[in-house]
Amino acid sequence: MMWGIGKSKSKLGRWMDKKGLAQKDLAKEAKVSKNTVTKACTDKEYIPRQDVMKKLLEAIRKVDPNAKMSDFWDM
To answer: What is the DSSP string of 21-67?
Structure first.
């Protein structure tokens, strides 16, 4: 059984699904809490604080060096 079917996802959540990445791995790599990553992946309205966004983006760029903040959050 697949989890999360039918749940709304943010751009980050959809990107992670496409890349096959786990939230816990992103949280560990970015050194932020799993709750923060879960919120960033599921809540379309959520925009992380600037410092958190920077950490997330640095971790994301290890997978996709061309990723930009605007790929995930409407600034």
So the answer is: --HHHHHHHHTS-HHHHHHHHH-TT----HHHHHHHHHHHHTT-TT-
